[in-house]
């Protein structure tokens, strides 16, 4: 089981004072019983003095073998006990998937009509974005 | 050109590059969407690569900086992190500083071809 495997690996290597491994696969376009998307909240003294990038690298390295066995996405929240206390034991919520084709969201099925206020606003945002980003690929 | 060389050229030729699923206008993944939003909020120009549009980069980017997931944010050729790190840096105000400093070195944001 992917969830158990993640928990065991992190427990053994990081001696966490708090560990949550949450299967969030249901929020994504995968099979109903999938174990592909996980949120991991790990609080460990071993993170003290380590930058966020290094902490994530440590966790990614511990779970690396699982990525070839179906693990696809990790929402990672790595904290020291002090940081966890400062946050009041709260971790940010993960985003919902946007990958499923949702014609109603993209407005593909919508009847052509006069642009309303929200549509004008969306267009203005897109124009601003077009000026802000450079497409490499 | 070898795919690793292509990636290297992208991250070194542009001060800020986001590798994401979809585009900032039409993100195809919630994690990519959040990272792109954080960059937009910084108000600087940034480049992006839609990894879904290039299977070779999609396959090989995880090897480039030994980072297993998307999105990936690079500033000045260095991996900054994925979605969670980008959002954390944005919340503390560090992302705004880092992107402003990177953009200041190259006022066109690498938009010169």
UniProtKB/TrEMBL annotation, chain A:
The protein, known as: BolA family transcriptional regulator
One of the protein's GO biological processes: DNA-templated transcription
Annotated Pfam families: BolA
Originating species: Candidatus Sedimenticola endophacoides
GO CC terms, sorted: cytosol
Region Disordered: start-end pairs: 85-122
Family: Belongs to the BolA/IbaG family.
From TrEMBL, chain B:
Entries under SUPFAM superfamilies matching the protein: Thioredoxin-like
Pfam entry (one): Glutaredoxin
Keyword Iron: yes
Binding site for [2Fe-2S] cluster: 29
Gene3D superfamilies: Glutaredoxin
Keywords noted in UniProt: 2Fe-2S, Iron, Iron-sulfur, Metal-binding, Redox-active center
Domain (Glutaredoxin) ranges: 16-80
Domain of life: Bacteria
Any one GO molecular function term: metal ion binding
Keyword Metal-binding set for record: yes
Recorded family membership: Belongs to the glutaredoxin family. Monothiol subfamily.
Protein name, per record: Glutaredoxin
Upper classification of the organism: Bacteria, Pseudomonadati, Pseudomonadota, Gammaproteobacteria, Chromatiales
Name of encoding gene: grxD
């Amino acid at each position: 089981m992917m969830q158990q495997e993640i928990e065991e690996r992190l427990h053994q290597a990081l001696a966490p004072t708090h560990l949550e491994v949450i299967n969030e696969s249901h929020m994504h376009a995968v099979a109903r019983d999938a174990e592909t998307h996980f949120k991991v909240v790990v609080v460990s003294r071993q993170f003290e003095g380590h930058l966020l990038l290094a902490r994530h690298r440590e966790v990614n390295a511990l779970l690396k073998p699982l990525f070839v066995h179906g693990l696809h996405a990790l929402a990672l929240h790595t904290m020291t006990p002090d940081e966890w206390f400062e946050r009041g034991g709260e971790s940010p919520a993960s985003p919902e998937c946007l990958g499923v084709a949702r014609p109603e969201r993209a407005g593909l099925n919508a009847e052509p009509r006069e642009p309303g206020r929200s549509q004008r606003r969306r267009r203005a945002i897109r124009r601003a974005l077009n000026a802000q980003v450079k497409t490499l690929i | 050109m070898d795919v690793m060389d292509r990636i290297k050229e992208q991250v070194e030729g542009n001060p800020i590059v986001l590798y994401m699923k979809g585009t900032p206008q039409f993100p195809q993944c919630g994690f990519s969407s959040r990272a792109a939003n954080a960059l937009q909020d910084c108000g600087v120009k940034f480049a992006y690569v839609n990894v879904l549009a290039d299977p070779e980069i999609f396959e090989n980017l995880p090897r480039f900086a030994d980072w297993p997931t998307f999105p990936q944010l690079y500033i000045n050729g260095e991996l900054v992190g994925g979605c969670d790190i980008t959002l954390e840096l944005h919340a503390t105000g560090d992302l705004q500083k880092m992107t402003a400093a990177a953009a200041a070195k190259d006022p066109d944001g690498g938009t010169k071809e």
